[in-house]
Amino acid sequence: MRYIKKRLLMLVFLFSFLVGSAFVVSCNDSTSPENGSGEIKLIMVDSPADYNQVNIVVTRVEIHKTDTDESSGWFVINDISATYDLLTLRNGASTVLGTAKLDAGHYSQIRLVIGAGSNVVVGGITHPLEIPSGEESGMKLNHAFEIQPGLLYELILDFDAERSIVLTGSGKYLLKPVIRVVPVVISGSVSGIINPAFAAGNVYAINGTDTAATIADPLTGSFKVMALLQQTYRVEIHATDIVYADTTFSDVTVIAQKNNDLGTINLRHK
């Protein structure tokens, strides 16, 4: 009987040891978000452009890790092809280009692969967008950032459609993307409502040579300029009706992750 009790005690001890070991191993698993990986989220918005539509087909989104070679250091964030009309992504509207878990560490580039079928609509006529090298090597955006374990890193890609499309002498439309890359954690926004709405036009937030813009909604007069770094701006409202004067606000402060609401802005007659 004493021998049997001794054997049982040994088995209980062995079982407890194995369970404890398994627990230690699971807690040190490098794939766990709390220990070895974080998450990235890419959000796209757009600045105004004088077109009816700007339709971009994004077939793949990738991120490049620092200190890796050019061919193998890319990590796919999204490989589901989708078409985006850039001109709908303004005044607070946005779209998610992709989210994914990434190993903790430093990253240096974002690559957008633009596919066939991208086009621009001008005066109701659709024109194909030619994409120099876009379908092969993709559009590369240099932006250094760090993914930290267990944390979400959000980036806004502010697509400037007006400056991104080039009309050649032969009547072809080329896509040469001009995109601002702004971390959400250090950016904010400015909004307001312009009265009368039918006279509301372009709204610019200007700091030195840095300018972000949007077009106020012609039905409601509302606007929202997004992806603004935390600093002070001059906000200019350009009326579309020549009866009304342009309006300027100096020293408009933007605070990270907050919106500065300018309220209702009544345009003055000239």
Basic shape: globular
- The low-confidence runs, each spanning 5 or more residues with pLDDT under 50, are 1-34
Roughly how many Å is the radius of gyration? 26 Å
Termini Cα gap: 106 Å
- Backbone structural class: mainly beta
Q: Give the strand content.
A: over 45%
Quick one: how many beta strands?
A: 20
Q: What is the typical, i.e. mean, pLDDT?
A: 85
Number of distinct helices = 2
Q: What is the percent of helical residues?
A: 10-25%
> Biggest sheet, in brief?
9 strands, mixed
Number of domains: 2
**Helix and strand run:** HEEEEEEEEEEHEEEEEEEEEE
Salient structural properties:
270 residues, mainly beta, Immunoglobulin-like, 9-stranded mixed sheet, 4-stranded mixed sheet, 2 helices, 20 strands, 11% helix
Describe this protein's structure.
With 270 residues, this protein is mostly beta strands. It has 2 domains: 37-177; 187-266, Immunoglobulin-like, CATH 2.60.40. The protein is 11% helix and 53% strand. It contains 2 helices and 20 strands. It has helices at 2-27, 161-164, and strands spanning 37-47, 53-65, 74-78, 82-85, 95-103, 105-114, 119-122, 125-130, 139-147, 152-160, 165-167, 173-175, 179-183, 187-195, 202-207, 210-215, 222-229, 232-238, 247-253, 259-266. The strands form 4 sheets. Strands 2, 3, 4, 6, 7, 8, 9, 11 and 12 form a 9-stranded mixed sheet that branches. A 4-stranded mixed sheet has the order 5-1-10-13. A hairpin with a 5-residue loop joins strand 11 (165-167) and strand 12 (173-175). The longest helix has 26 residues, at 2-27. The radius of gyration is 26 Å and the shape is globular. The model is unreliable at 1-34 (pLDDT under 50).
